[in-house]
């Protein structure tokens, strides 16, 4: 999610799809585990923080572009609190 290519891909495949089909409700219902870390940062903790920030940023971008879309985040994935 931190890679600019991924951001463009998600824009095209998710946000544009939601717009094209006039979807008014999106349910995110899954658990996700980041594991021990990601490549590209000073520590596993920093990598996880950056990944979490990128995930939250994507949801905020969906809301920015589709302000009337209802997003239900109903799983128990604790990193999304």
Characterization of this structure:
The chain has 81 residues and is mainly α. It has one domain (4-80). It is 48% helix and 10% strand. It is built from two helices and two strands. Strands 1-2 form a two-stranded parallel sheet. α2 (44-65) links the parallel β1 (25-28) and β2. The chain is globular, with a radius of gyration of 14 Å. The chain starts with a helix and ends in an 8-residue tail after the last strand. The mean pLDDT is 83.
Task: Tell me briefly what this model is.
By secondary structure, the chain is mainly alpha-helical. It has one domain (4-80). It has two helices and two strands.
Helix content: 40-55%
Order of helices and strands: HEHE
Q: What general form does the structure show?
A: globular
Strand percent estimate: 5-15%
Q: Low-confidence parts, pLDDT < 50 over ≥5 residues?
A: none
Query: Averaged pLDDT, please?
Result: 83
Q: Which sequence of strands runs across the widest sheet? A: 1-2
The number of domains is 1
From the N-terminal CA to the C-terminal CA, the straight-line distance is 18 Å
The Rg value, from CA coordinates, equals 14 Å
Class by helix and strand content?
Answer: mainly alpha
- Quantity of strands, as a count: 2
Protein name: Alpha-galactosidase
